[in-house]
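OP here, attaching both records as promised.
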Amino acid sequence: MTELAKQTTATNTNELATLRPLVTIIEEESGFTLTAELPGVPKENVKVQVENHVLTLEGEIRLATPEQMESTHAEIGSAKYKRAFTLSRELDSTKIEASQRDGVLTLHIPKAEHAQPRRIEVQVG
């Protein structure tokens, strides 16, 4: 069964379809910025967790049909977003910062102090 067919079947049987959010990762000198698209997911339904160097992003969306209306076609009524990443030991998972705006979750993952570039001053003499 294709992934799309599984998602559609899951939606029709009261199970939540699990979707992989689109992610962009940018490396900077001081760490990484990760953005994940979670359209329609309210802040209270977003979960960011780090356990055993695995960063897990989760979000849940439930679109309700307004009262006195009936849906004739809905590809996604409820869905769960989930994505996991293994973090390098060069990153400081205790200092991850997260924010959400317009359906986009943004994480700033700093490099550990020992992994950040440092300038060594050369002495004359």
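Record two, same layout:
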Amino acid sequence: MRSPSRSTRAFTLIELLVVIAIIAILVGLLFPAFKAVQNQARSTQAKNDLTQIVTAVNAFYTDYGKYPLPSTAAAGDCAFSWTVPGIANSYGNDWLLNELRGCTAAGPSCSGNLNTPIINARQIVYLSPPIVKDATNPKSGICPTGGNAANVGRFYDPWGSPYNVEMDSSYDNAVRNPYVALGGSGAGPDPVGQGVIGWSNGLDLQVGTNSSKKLRIQNRSSKIRRRSRSSELRLF
């Protein structure tokens, strides 16, 4: 006796195309949300890194009674990474990180931009950021050898730009507001009545209005190493 035949129904081409279209729409809806979460995580990391940098500089000042400045710096304030109008000295942030990390000689993650003699004579490690995984595309840490030699020892933010720091090395408790100095707006007073400020270039690399940069400010005279809610500015 012949068993009853069973027919199996497959997807038609139209049905398959409809399913693919639905999946594509869902992916398109989810991708912006994923990017927003990713950028929020990067912003949080940048904020934490900047807090650590400013805290480390203040701790250095507390221990040594002066800022970790390059020995070649002229009189006046000092900026690391950005060149800020009105600031006498401008260096890569590796100069600063070498002192804060206790570097005494050029090495796999320490640049050759070292003070003579070393200011951090006790070789205290005030800051110990991670080493980036890809030296040719540095992000979220210290750039080692293996990429551009000029980048070695520099501390990079999650978007791939070196962190910026400005210090009141003239010791008058005021530094230029970098956004105002560079033609931005909506960034508060200029000068800023603080001893150390740090900021990230953010995602869009813009200056002032409509930028996603972060500005972390902490007063040099503060002896308690804690954050104040009023010490953080988010600039748009």
